[in-house]
Amino acid sequence: MRAWLAFMPAATLVGRELDRQLKEDTGLSHLQYEILIHLDEARQGAMRMTELAERLVNSKSGLTYQIGQMEKAGLVTRRQCEWSKSGVLAEITPEGRAMLERAAPGHVDKVREILIDVLTPEERRAIAEGLGRVRDRIIERNDGEACW
Amino acid sequence: MRAWLAFMPAATLVGRELDRQLKEDTGLSHLQYEILIHLDEARQGAMRMTELAERLVNSKSGLTYQIGQMEKAGLVTRRQCEWSKSGVLAEITPEGRAMLERAAPGHVDKVREILIDVLTPEERRAIAEGLGRVRDRIIERNDGEACW
DNA sequence: ACACCACGGTTCAAATTTGAACCGCTGTGA
DNA sequence: TCACAGCGGTTCAAATTTGAACCGTGGTGT
Questions:
Q1: Domains along chain A?
Q2: Which nucleotide shows the minimum CA-to-C1' distance to residue A51?
Q3: Which residue, B145, B129, B125, is CA-closest to A118?
Q4: What is the pLDDT of residues B91-107, one digit of tens each?
């Protein structure tokens, strides 16, 4: 029960804090940053919309919106998937990569500062294990059903 | 780092799942449920807006909005604070308490099901301790500054 | 009593999120 | 080849969130 009382507030606070730092330093929202990270990691720097949405734990329509914003800002492009006429690839642009390079160091520092460094090694392990399991359980449970 | 990769997604998923269950079973959002809980626990069943906002880790304007909605729904009332002409108390109504009684069992079950029961006792302890510390650190760090 | 600044809440417009409806593809079976 | 169910994305309106500006009070110092 105490775990519960710590978990959600901590998540909210950490999220808010990171959002703030990113927005202040780079103008990016946390979600936009995550989008860039995922695209940057993908081979070709591109990914299907739906897959991206799933990895980000975000709704499809929400992603459409954000990609729209980021396209305006020149950070990503939309491109048709080669082998399927429906199907859209979001691709990171050079500007997007540049932005990421500018944003990443500060962001990573912040994560360390407010989360990682506050935890003992074995707390980190417990969180990685335990919450990882929590996450996977929910994902897998929802997999059969309709998505958001 | 793995802790980080588990933490935020787990929080998002758990939040979404609870929101869904509550909305489906009772029509309440998670935030509204939390509001009722906090008011119900307060003596007199009432609390100052700002204090409530702080406890909920929510913005003041957001709270104003939600209390407005819940007032329309008859779950809470607004009342002037006795000893201060500015200052508003949000108070839970009998309907609000009834709603809470209807909502609580299912909600608590869900929390156990998707979070508590998935964790080992010592993971729970580590999360309570560690994330509790994370939470308190951020709160206290922000205390001096302007709030949201 | 007066000037002022901080506090408690609300308001307002803009940004974002949500969920359902929709539209053009895909591929599967008759 | 012809439905037709289901997927991938987008659109749309409605709900919510955000952050800054604002308004009346409270307390402080003079």
A1: 2-114 (1.10.10.10)
A2: D8
A3: B129
A4: 999 999 999 999 999 99
